[in-house]
Specification:
single chain, 220 residues, Aldehyde Dehydrogenase, Chain A, domain 1, 3-stranded mixed β-sheet, 3-stranded parallel β-sheet, 6 helices, globular, disordered N terminus
């Protein structure tokens, strides 16, 4: 079955919102994103307050209670859909990477492809989260080790590979049964992780909601 991206961003200046749980939230304080070649403003992203970051963590914790109970097969299916959506939207995603980071378009296309491959990789790894038996002591001859999701993951990513490095952290956590609060580097590629992975997650319908934005006073 194929899946279609239905809410691609406009070609004009991008005004990204926070996504906290199922809500899209605008902020008064915003960060301009400029094309490094022309210095033109290509969009703005939100600079989240401490209260909004706390709300995002609370929303992720709430989603975790449900997502942790999904089966490995369900997580794998969602990640495969994400990979399919990112591949289908490769041209537009590559254009955004180039606009925001300044790398050649060919490199941006390769980054999108690489990021989608991470979704496919973790889709398979989700089904291989094995436990094991080890030798115990005198009163406990065998010990069983079980790997379980622990909770909300806080992911911070740099500017140079905005999509790939976000994908590595986000998709690994999803595969393991965790939820994510994602913070990209201030002012660079601020919208790609939420728009690409988050939009794909919503289409997959089974992935946890996540938060995307800048905590207050976090510009560096």
């Amino acid at each position: 079955m194929s899946h279609t991206v239905t809410d691609s961003p406009p070609t004009s200046e991008i005004h990204e919102l926070l996504r906290i749980g199922s809500q899209r939230v605008d902020t008064i304080d915003r960060i301009e994103v400029r094309n490094p070649a022309t210095h033109e403003v290509v969009g703005t992203c939100p600079n989240a307050s401490s209260a909004e970051v706390t709300a995002a963590i609370d929303a992720a914790e709430s989603a975790f209670r449900t997502w942790r109970r999904t089966t490995p097969q369900e997580r794998a299916r969602a990640l495969r859909i994400i990979a399919e959506l990112m591949t289908a939207d490769q041209a537009n995603l590559a254009r955004l990477v180039t606009l925001e980071v300044g790398k050649p378009l060919a490199e941006s296309r390769a980054e999108v492809e690489y990021a989608a491959e991470f979704a496919g990789w973790y889709a398979e790894e989700a089904r291989r989260i094995y436990g094991r038996m080890t030798i115990g002591g005198t009163d406990e001859p065998w010990r069983q080790l079980v790997r379980q999701p622990l909770g909300v993951v806080g992911a911070i990513t740099p500017w140079n590979y905005p999509l790939v490095l976000s994908a590595r952290k986000l998709f690994a956590a999803i595969a393991a049964g965790c939820t994510v609060v994602l913070k990209p580097r201030a002012g660079a590629a601020c919208r790609l992780p939420a728009w690409s992975a988050g939009r794909a997650c919503r289409t997959a319908r089974r992935c946890p909601e996540h938060h995307h934005g800048e905590p207050a006073n976090s510009r560096r």
